[in-house]
Here is the input.
Amino acid sequence: MGREWWHRFAALFGLRREEADLDEEIRFHLEMEAGKLEAEGRSPGDARREALRRFGGVERMKERTRDERGTRLLEDTVRDVLYTLRTLRRDPAFAVVAVLTLSLGVGATTAMYTLVDGVLLRPLPYPAAHELVSIRERTAEGGTLATSYLNFMDWRTASDRIAAMAAHTPTRPTTVLTPSGGVRARITSVTRDFFQVGGVEPIRGRIPDPGEHAEGGPAVAVVSERFWRSTLGEQGPQGLSLDIAGTVHDVVGVMPGGFELPGRPDVWVALDRAVPWSARGNHVVEVLGRLAPGATVDEADRELDAVQAAIRAGAPEVDSPSVAARPYLDAVVGDARRALTLLLAAAALLLLVACTNLASTLLARGFGRVRELGMRASLGAGRGRLVRQLFLESLTLALAGGMGGVLTASGLLALTRAFDPGAVPRLAEVSLDPGVLGFTLLVAVGTAVAFGLMPALALTRGDLASALRSGRSGHGRGVRRIWRAILAGEVALAVLLLVAGGLVARDLVAILDRPGGFRTAGVVTAQMELPAGKYASVAEALQVVDGILDGVRAGGGVEAVGLTLTLPVPGRGSVAGPVQMDDGTRTDRSFEYRVADAGYFRTLEVPLIRGRMFEPSDGPGAPHAALVDEAMAEALWPGLDPVGQTFNPRGMDPFPDQALTVVGVVGETLRWDRAPGGSPGYYVHYRQRPTFLGLFGMSVVAAVDDTGAGAAHLRETVRRVDRDVPVRLGTLEADIAGSASDRRFRAFVLSGFALAALLLACVGVYGVVAYTAARHTRDMGIRLALGASRSQVRSGVQADVLTTVGIGMAVGSVLAYTLARALERLLFVVSPWDPVAFSLALGALGAAAWCASWVPAWRGTRLSPARVLTEE
Here is the structure.
């Protein structure tokens, strides 16, 4: 069987030679027969006619010979493909629209599938990455939070389902002194088993040994390949040293570029040498584990719950009742899983819109070719041959659309990388691979089979020869019902995308426009970390801070200047925890710990509600003062005057026995990622509790007349006071806008899909009305001749299609309302059933559909009735 088909294919490639030989053989036979007849006395013309009659028909004999060769099907297919290409070349507008439609749908789906595959489905680039788990403490409300170091130590000792466990602090930027000066680097502190849990060896040098993790041991550091090449100049690493927080660390190893646990750090140092805030209520470390052979995540979770219960029994200050263990990939991906899944579903909807649009377009074009198909049927073409011809046309379009989809997907991924605001984790690992290209081809061919064969079958179901004689399609109500169903489905899917895009876009606008209770316009920010090891004492570091503030304040055009530990911007990690009241009880609720000065409130125009602001007298030797916001005052002292009350943020800073006295109540500085009163907090003065400045860095805020000049003045001031302090300049408005980058990314993609769906729906409506107008040209001519106005005729042409559009909009609205809950966790301000978003989506689609239907209807009614009737 295989050899027979091989010979058929070989014969197919020699088709021209075979056909030439066949023509020559038939010609020779006819000439011989005609010569015999001429010898009998017939004229040359009569002899040739009689020879042809006796031969029985040249074309029939050719078909019989092709059947005997076994290549007829292949030859017919080649002819059909060539005919398809000629047909598409005669109608380039249709071909271009169809290919672009499919390219858009396939390209968007392929790009989103590639992102989902690269981010969510592919394992992390570490040995046996499926064994890695993230372990956090679980609150009574079901949320999760970081772990206390002491709890981690007990987990590591008691767990059997976790083969190895390590802790690390959150990766944070700080100032590191290198041989060439101060640089900004991302630092994380890790316990001794961290690199063994990760399972990756250094490309240069070694990892720290156990003695270098012990308290009092030598200080060493491991750097990333990126930091080693860009900052340290690829030296060593032997002989290199870094001054981190006042301690000189010898660089002993360089980790490979693919190792980025946790959060793309530049430098890893030993955590065990100096454990911060070693109390069970201080949630300061994240825990990474590797499952024991045969263990599952659920088993580890249950075991650690039991360990945590035993810890709580002996240590009542433990405030987390259970433990949350989950695959580390889930921790890396975070909220991006839900967002990318939603975007993939949106891309699939867009592909469906494109496919229904293609089906509608193929139907319209096929109805316009009824005469051609009827002619071919009259000449003997069977239904199978006609279906194959139409199917090959749609398959050709699908393959072209598939290639266009690959190019579109590549372009979309390139744009995502170029403009990625950090919303897509693991983006560097995403690429179009053979599997994804196979997926693209499968989608394109599947589209051809599903949406190309259906119109072909519908077009060839009727009596095409009768249609040829009557000049009408002859497809009646059945085909029109199919067409209406396709158009209504396309409109319904477009409504889904428009509502989803409108909700996410409106939520982003509401986020950025939401009043936060503080000034944002004209505020310049300078984020910096002091190189703590450079200063002999805290007092010397404070002199640097004062010098920076005084220098900025002295600049022209500066209205106010202040200092804070944490900007009121989402994603700028804050410190929070329970506080201890006068009677010794601890609160169940956590409160944010914020460091600031009086200038911070003046700069951001945060109002003073009661009491006083920080004053110059609030220095190191005075009683420690605190400002609380309205939410904290209401939570702790409802109905009482908070001014004069005392509390202790025990464990939150190095002053565990120094109580804070409330001297004033200030307005809330709301961030868009929390509800009003959802995260109350308090402020301490940087001069009284300065340690956090060296630990987490600080931000100087300045209200200026000109943000450009103000930023330059800030940079110059910091450089003049201390050249080893790298500074990151910006504006508060840009910082807040940047914190919503992931939501902006989702809004941009969803809105793009929605606009594409709207455009495709309009193309579909236009095609339907254009066909309807062409098909009813005679009817419109008669109505115009009988006195009907052009507007009446035009409305009649539009009415049927717009009714179908209305049905699709109604179905889409019901589906959107039902599925809106899927968006609920991605929206912060706008309700998933927001009537404005629904109204805008339906209004935009309705208006666009009316315009798309009006244009071809208008063109149809511009013809002269006399000319139409004459042609008919």
